[in-house]
């Protein structure tokens, strides 16, 4: 069976209809997220951190060693908006370059905190903001709405599942 975005989208709707929310929502939502285009992935991350962020923020920065990512964040802040967006796209697309390798060696909790901090920097104007009027795809909307409905632990698990695979781990071979 081929697993496509359409299958994931349908499966995500079936998860809630079938009552298996706790068992299936995290893997189904994670799978659908990973099938979104890169810009929708970045938009969902931004929306999740800004809309759900008030409940997510205590877990991400508090549990992570953000100082390990500060050098990377400072490099990003020094770039033009076009370069900042390209770095985020490169991380999400797992493009092999120095920034992706630097990100790739971070721990899962530090990666969570890294994206939280990027969202904060975007809101503060230090990092390229979301384009005005950006429209998520239908599947992007489904992912975002599903994440909003889940409990805190499920939200964190989905975020962790999505950001851990971003970048390039130079130690993994």
TrEMBL record:
<keyword id="KW-0042">Antenna complex</keyword>
<keyword id="KW-0793">Thylakoid</keyword>
<dbReference type="Pfam" id="PF09150">
    <property type="entry name" value="Carot_N"/>
</dbReference>
<comment type="similarity">
    <text>Belongs to the orange carotenoid-binding protein family.</text>
</comment>
<feature type="domain" description="OCP N-terminal">
    <location>
        <begin position="23"/>
        <end position="173"/>
    </location>
</feature>
<protein>
    <submittedName>
        <fullName>Orange carotenoid protein N-terminal domain-containing protein</fullName>
    </submittedName>
</protein>
<dbReference type="InterPro" id="IPR015233">
    <property type="entry name" value="Orange_carotenoid-bd_N"/>
</dbReference>
<keyword id="KW-0157">Chromophore</keyword>
<keyword id="KW-0605">Phycobilisome</keyword>
<keyword id="KW-0472">Membrane</keyword>
<dbReference type="InterPro" id="IPR036917">
    <property type="entry name" value="Orange_carotenoid-bd_N_sf"/>
</dbReference>
């Amino acid at each position: 069976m081929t697993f496509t975005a359409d299958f994931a989208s349908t499966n995500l709707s079936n998860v809630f209809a079938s009552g298996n929310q706790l068992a299936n929502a995290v893997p189904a939502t994670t799978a659908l997220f990973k099938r979104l285009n890169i810009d929708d992935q970045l938009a969902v991350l931004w929306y999740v951190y800004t809309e759900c962020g008030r409940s997510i923020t205590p877990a991400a920065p508090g549990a992570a060693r953000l100082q390990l990512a500060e050098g990377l964040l400072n490099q990003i802040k020094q770039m033009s908006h076009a370069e900042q967006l390209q770095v985020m796209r490169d991380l999400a697309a797992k493009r092999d370059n120095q920034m992706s390798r630097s990100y790739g060696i971070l721990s899962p909790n530090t990666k969570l905190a890294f994206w939280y901090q990027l969202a904060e920097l975007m809101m503060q104007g230090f990092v390229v903001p979301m384009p005005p009027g950006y429209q998520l795809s239908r599947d992007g909307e489904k992912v975002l709405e599903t994440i909003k409905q889940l409990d805190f632990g499920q939200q964190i698990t989905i975020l962790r599942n999505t950001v851990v695979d971003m970048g390039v781990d130079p130690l993994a071979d």
